Amino acid sequence: MDIQIISLPKIEDRRGNLSVIEGDTIPFDIKRVYYVYDIPSGAERGGHAHKNLQQFLVALSGSFDVILNNGKQKSTVTLNKPNVGLLIKPGIWRELANFSSGAVCLVVASDVYIEEDYIRNLKEFKRFIKIIDK
Ligand code: T46
């Protein structure tokens, strides 16, 4: 599965902790940052794959599960630390679920928002996987 758990530096201080995403921390240039918050109990997000986009997800607050499927394997990663993130390469179906109360999901992306980059249908995802596997 083309994913990676990446630890971020944690600069501890009696005033609180500081973590940073910069330079070589992630393997792409950052083109967009967005975050999901005020997530109601039981809500699920995602439910799609990307053709080209790389993303790096961090639970800035609280926790949630990222359920991943590359067409061959399935895996679940729980994000629950603001200094640990999950890199997701293209061609991976992701669902986000089990958000704790007060969870905030930060996403750092390799490109701007392009609706055509989304695969929002599982049948289309399976077709896409077969093409990139050839
Ligand atoms: C992903 C997961 C982790 C924008 O206008 N600009 C943006 O940059 C984004 C990300 C979304 N939108 C609009 C498109 C939809 O009308 O915001 C609405 C909600 O987007 P979506 O349903 O795609 O949100 P999630 O949380 O299901 O998925 C998002 C990202 O879209 C996706 O790439 O991997 O977070």
Can you walk me through this structure?
The protein has 134 residues and is mostly beta strands. It has a single domain (3-133), classed as Jelly Rolls. Helix content is 9%, strand content 43%. It has one helix at 122-133; strands at 3-7, 10-11, 18-19, 32-36, 45-50, 55-61, 64-69, 74-79, 84-88, 93-97, 104-109, 118-119. The strands form 3 sheets. Strands 1-9-6-11-4 form a 5-stranded antiparallel sheet, with no helix packed on it. A 5-stranded antiparallel sheet has the order 8-7-10-5-12. Strands 2-3 form a two-stranded antiparallel sheet. The longest helix has 12 residues, at 122-133. The site of dTDP-4-keto-6-deoxyglucose has 10 residues, from strand 4, strand 5 and strand 10.
What is the secondary structure topology, with strand pairs?
Layout: E1 3-7, E2 10-11, E3 18-19, E4 32-36, E5 45-50, E6 55-61, E7 64-69, E8 74-79, E9 84-88, E10 93-97, E11 104-109, E12 118-119, H1 122-133
Antiparallel strand pairs: 1-9, 2-3, 4-11, 5-10, 5-12, 6-9, 6-11, 7-8, 7-10
Bound molecules: dTDP-4-keto-6-deoxyglucose.
